[in-house]
Amino acid sequence: AARLQAQEIANGRLAMWAAAGLIVQGCQTNQGGVEALASSLSANSF
């Protein structure tokens, strides 16, 4: 049970970092996460 709890905490922390990254990206580009993904895919920037 302790191992599962530690994994859940780690996953939650990773999700918080991901959300913070989306917020920073949105502030810098004035686009939401889905908009940024759509523009990257349509421009074939990968």
TrEMBL record:
Q: Name the InterPro entries on file.
A: Chloroa_b-bind
Q: Which domain of life is it from?
A: Eukaryota
List UniProt keywords, sorted A-Z: Chloroplast, Light-harvesting polypeptide, Plastid
Q: What is its main location?
A: plastid
Q: Mind naming one GO cellular-component term on file for this protein?
A: light-harvesting complex
Tell me where in or outside the cell this protein is found.
Plastid, Chloroplast
Q: Family, per the entry?
A: Belongs to the fucoxanthin chlorophyll protein family.
Question: In its UniProt entry, what is this protein called?
Answer: Chlorophyll a-b binding protein, chloroplastic
